[in-house]
Design a protein that fits this description.
The protein is mostly helical. It has a single domain, classed as Cytochrome P450 (Cytochrome p450). 54% of the residues lie in helices and 7% in strands. The protein contains 15 helices and 8 strands. The strands form 3 sheets. Strands 1-6-3 form a 3-stranded mixed β-sheet. Strand 4 and strand 5 form a beta hairpin. The structure holds protoporphyrin IX containing FE (HEM).
């Protein structure tokens, strides 16, 4: 009798776990992060600064500090190690920012046609009839990352990467993205192996772009590793994963894209709406380098950390903000909307915005012509399921019954995976936050005497 009563209580509790546990875990994780790191920063939009002031404050010239003096930086540096001190996104403008940014710009400066050609070359090897004869259940992130890897390798070195090199890069970038999302711990051996590979390439003279300043081979390798073999690969892959997953969950949008009468602007609207709803940045932070007077009553004190919350900002002022509605962009302009997928021009916006949009457009038109996508998994910004979906060749008929069975399988698997992943994220997140707090990579770096205006040798972030 007692056993039956217990079973009646326990079984529904276990079955309902995926409905309530992941949210509870997220809240728990946030409170652990806050407890360990301390409450930090002025949240924008928030109590003090409204969404209408978001762009103005972000663009303020006294909000230039990037890493020095914020606890959050220790965490970002930890996730990006080795070499955050050579990563354009994290160095201070008074360090060697200008020189480093110039090398990035130089590497990215290929024409639209060259970008399309290079992307198509690698995309066609994977999105091909040979590879997907009828249909396949895939994880979009795993499927797309090799394309981004081959593309950025050739962009940087001007030659194709070997299978062995691709494996090394993929192990590194997968480890960075998985640890950033709390799904894995940092694996420094995988990361250091890529540094060694890049140093070898540089020593052989395989890198043809010019560095305006003298850096050691290690510093050059760490710069390439951070900007091109981490940020570029991870961001490009995630943007494309979101775009295809959102289509997989919205067959009506795929239908409209396939209709030859559809205005080409609709393609743009699908991309804009993807980046609005799934911005790749959660929070970008800046440190005030001077006092900032907002108005008579409000100011930001020098040294304050200001946290710009992209997902929040992208919701304010939009009707049904949580819904994917590409049509909304027919009546609003990106300039006027609360929409900054690539940051703010006046304060270190993304240097690859143009290239990224070309690639997204190319992938959208090519992918949708040849394949259909279908999915029943949850679509969140952190993509813990790595974009699980079915990819279906248009050259073969696909039975509705098989699709329904596969969708039911994906949903059930996602249901339990979400549960498992959220617990892993809680445990790993906690370990990494503590480890980052202990290592204090950014703090220790800025405590060390800097060698004039030159970044000191990259030694602090190997651990
Ligand atoms: C759709 C894809 C991408 C999106 C949505 C995106 C978004 C962003 C955003 C919002 C920022 C500004 C962050 C801030 O204000 O702190 C940024 C900065 C940056 N992004 Fe991207 N990004 C993408 C792809 C790429 C790619 C392919 C690269 C490859 C080079 C790249 C390299 C960078 C760098 C180096 C910065 C730092 C800029 C600086 O501080 O000077 N991004 N990105």
């Amino acid at each position: 009798m007692i056993i039956s009563a217990l079973l009646i209580l326990i079984i529904p509790l276990i079955i309902s776990l995926p409905f309530w546990l992941p949210n509870l875990v997220i809240q728990l994780r946030m409170s652990i992060f806050t407890k360990v790191n301390g409450e930090e920063g002025i949240q924008v939009p928030g109590k003090e600064i409204k969404a209408s002031e978001f762009k103005k404050i972000y663009a303020n010239k006294s909000l230039k500090g990037r890493s020095k003096g914020a606890n959050l930086s220790n965490l970002f540096w930890y996730w990006l190690a080795p070499g955050p001190e050579m990563h354009q996104e994290h160095i201070e403008e008074w360090d060697n920012y200008k020189e480093i940014a110039a090398v990035t710009k130089n590497i990215l400066s290929i024409s639209n046609e060259e970008t399309e050609q290079l992307w198509s070359k690698y995309e066609s090897t994977i999105f091909s009839q040979k590879n997907i004869k009828t249909w396949k259940v895939i994880r979009l992130r795993d499927f797309l990352m090799p394309i981004s890897t081959s593309f950025f390798y050739e962009l940087v070195f001007g030659e194709e990467c070997t299978e062995e090199e691709k494996k090394i890069i993929l192990k590194h970038s997968n480890n960075v993205v998985n640890s950033l999302k709390g799904c894995a711990l940092r694996h420094m051996a995988k990361r250091n192996k890529l540094t060694e590979l890049l140093m070898e390439k540089l020593e052989k003279g395989d890198f043809k772009h010019h560095f305006p300043k003298e850096y050691t081979t290690e510093q050059k390798a760490l710069f390439l590793q951070g900007v091109f073999f981490t940020t570029a690969i991870v961001q490009m892959t995630d943007a494309l994963t979101h775009m295809l997953l959102v289509l997989a969950r919205h067959p009506e949008v795929q239908k409209k894209l396939n209709n030859s009468n559809t205005d080409k602007r609709y393609y743009d609207n699908v991309i804009s709406e993807t980046l609005r709803l799934y911005p790749l940045f959660g929070i970008a932070h800046r440190i005030a380098t001077d006092d900032i007077q907002i108005d008579e009553n409000r100011s930001i004190a020098k040294g304050s950390v200001v946290c710009f919350n992209y997902p929040e900002y992208h919701k304010i002022g939009f009707k049904n903000p949580d819904k994917f509605i590409p049509e909304r962009w027919e009546t609003i302009t990106k300039r006027e909307a609360n929409y900054i997928p690539f940051g703010i021009g006046a304060n270190r916006a993304c240097p690859a915005s143009h290239m990224s949009l070309i690639i997204m457009e190319k992938m959208l038109s090519n992918g949708i012509q040849k394949f259909g996508f279908s999915s029943s998994v949850e679509h969140t910004r952190s993509l813990p399921n790595r974009g699980a979906c079915i990819i279906i060749s248009k050259e073969h008929s696909f039975s509705n019954t098989i699709e329904k069975i596969l969708l039911a399988f994906l949903k059930t698997r996602d249901y339990w995976e979400t549960l498992r992943t959220s617990i892993i994220q809680l445990v790993y997140g906690f370990i990494m936050v503590l480890h980052a707090k202990d290592l204090k990579l950014a703090d220790n770096y800025y405590k060390k005497p800097q060698n004039g205006n030159t970044i000191s040798p990259a030694v602090v972030s190997k651990s």
